Amino acid sequence: MDRSTQQRGHGRAALIVNTRSRSGERVFFRALDRLQELNVPLGATYPIRDPVRLPETVREVLSDGSGYETLILGGGDGSVSSVVDFLAHHHVTLGLLPLGTANDFARTLDIPSEVDGACDTVANGKVVDVDLGLAGDNYFVNVASVGLGVGATQALTPWAKKTIGALAYPVAAIKAFMTHEPFSARLVFPDGDHETVEHDRLLQVAVGNGKFYGGGMVVAPGSGIDDKSLDVYAIQLGRHRDMFGVARYLKSGDFIRNESVSQYRTTRVRLETDPELSVNIDGELVARTPQDFSVAGNALKVIVPQSSTAARRDHE
């Protein structure tokens, strides 16, 4: 075992790969070989062909008494989000092999997208503490949203993700924009850090925990995954040229400077909408408004490259 692994107290590791993710099937055996070459002490390995079984498998691994200290997960943002409820506030550390289309969680933490680099991170990286968002009692890693994000998720097809990769996200957003029905929203801040606000004719309301979403778009300038806060923004459906202006700056996060965008940084917010709407949580529609959002500080331990400055151990 290499020295960095011993220093980190790696212990035994379980490997679970969503082989239905964009590159999962061909990556599984390569990752298995590479991790063994790097002296990562692997125990059980699970190539999961049905993503529905992923949460169940993770739960079993964490509760079967095998004493794993690291869970190496191969998959995209959806895979991470589907199992993070079991990993939150758990002693097991997450090692990530980013195999999805967007990989925004990995991008936030500077984890390499290619398999050899990701395996090297698992073997030789450092452990950091990151925050998780909460929508009710559902944990999320990147962003929760209502409005355009929900429409884009519904327009995002597996075929598009496999054939055009991250470009599938803006294409789906354009499709959703063409049929979007504006809505109104009320934001209530229970901690009193902002006054209650109401917005009409909205395109989207998003609550971000990490730095990136939707294939590399920035949640907000200065947003981070260990800042103990959520970044909330509401985009008003204004003139079309205003919306094109917002679209232009989505990549950098400068869109919040557009006059049609209102932004709030907070630890807790209640979102009420008219009409009631589905909530997109890291790409899955698993809740509806009204919904309470909060931040769970230092809720997840993740292995990141030694050079990453995205987060740190809380005790450092």
TrEMBL record:
Domain annotation DAGKc: ranges: 56-139
Zinc recorded as keyword: no
GO BP annotations listed: phospholipid biosynthetic process
Cofactor: Mg(2+)
Alphabetic keyword roster: ATP-binding, Kinase, Lipid biosynthesis, Lipid metabolism, Magnesium, Metal-binding, Nucleotide-binding, Phospholipid biosynthesis, Phospholipid metabolism, Transferase
GO terms, molecular function: ATP binding; ATP-dependent diacylglycerol kinase activity; metal ion binding
Coiled-coil regions listed in the entry: none
Annotated Gene3D superfamilies: 2.60.200.40, Probable inorganic polyphosphate/atp-NAD kinase, domain 1 (3.40.50.10330)
Database matches in Pfam families: DAGK_cat (PF00781), YegS_C (PF19279)
Gene Ontology cellular component list: plasma membrane
Family of this protein: Belongs to the diacylglycerol/lipid kinase family.
PANTHER family (alphabetical): LIPID KINASE YEGS, SPHINGOSINE KINASE
NCBIfam families: PRK13057.1 (NF009604), YegS/Rv2252/BmrU family lipid kinase (TIGR00147)
Protein's recorded name: Lipid kinase
Source organism of the structure: Rubrobacter tropicus
Organism lineage string: Bacteria, Bacillati, Actinomycetota, Rubrobacteria, Rubrobacterales
